[in-house]
Write a structure and sequence with these properties.
With 208 residues, the chain is mostly helical. The protein is 79% helix and 0% strand. The protein has helices at residues 2-22, 26-49, 55-74, 77-80, 84-111, 116-149, 162-188, 196-201. The longest helix has 34 residues, at 116-149.
Length: 208
């Protein structure tokens, strides 16, 4: 799956950039370059810090970026389907929560000596905090993006009004809460073939 993820990431990253350059839509190219960074960020984190990121998460991150850059912006799904942005915010909130929950849980499992229920509970709180930090940061980026690129050919305004901003933040939290509940359920029931808790515990490097 690792080789497939790398190939998938390259295709999803390169396709919208080449298409928008050919159409002289350079405002879109800047946005596409940002999403290339997002796609390859898990690989950078793994290489630089030795923190394990599940291959499934790498795939979903790339898939989520594809839904935004290729289907949403290039093929106009944002304008065609009114609920499209809502789905991406729920998925995005869940995705950030999944990655953060995994890493924070790994830290707590390695350095705290408490019951599983306690560890899962305290892991959920900072995970929600991180999701909201990313969510607010994204809305700020959209705000400044609209200020800088409004009226630029090919640029679609990201923020319609305050209602749009608030529903985006709420949907981020809906996705995050769903992912946290799923993870807590998975970890509370160990697989017959492998210990799920040990799988998460080994995600971060621990010095002896």
């Amino acid at each position: 799956m690792k080789n497939f993820n790398v190939l998938f990431a390259v295709i999803v990253g390169a396709y919208p950039v080449m298409l928008n350059i050919s159409q002289n839509l350079f405002a879109k190219v800047l946005i596409d370059l940002f999403f290339i960074f997002v796609i390859f960020l898990p690989y950078i984190v793994e290489r630089k810090f030795g923190i394990g990121i599940f291959e499934e998460f790498k795939f979903i991150i790339t898939f989520h970026c594809m839904l935004h850059t290729i289907f949403g912006r290039t093929y106009g799904f944002y304008d065609t389907y009114f609920f499209y942005d809502d789905i991406l915010h729920i998925l995005g909130g869940g995705l950030i929560a999944g990655v953060c929950f995994s890493i924070i849980l790994s830290v707590f499992l390695n350095y705290l000596n408490h019951s599983d229920n306690y560890v899962l509970c305290i892991t959920s709180i900072p995970t929600l905090g991180v999701v909201n930090i990313f969510g607010v940061g994204w809305e700020i980026a959209e705000f400044f993006g609209d200020l800088m690129f409004s009226g630029t050919p090919g640029y679609r305004l990201a923020q319609a009004d305050l209602f749009d901003t608030m529903t985006d933040l709420i949907e981020n939290n809906i996705g995050a809460l769903l992912m946290i509940l799923i993870f807590r359920r998975i970890i509370s029931i160990n697989s017959k073939n492998r210990n799920i808790k040990e799988l998460f515990k080994n995600l971060i490097p621990v010095s002896d």
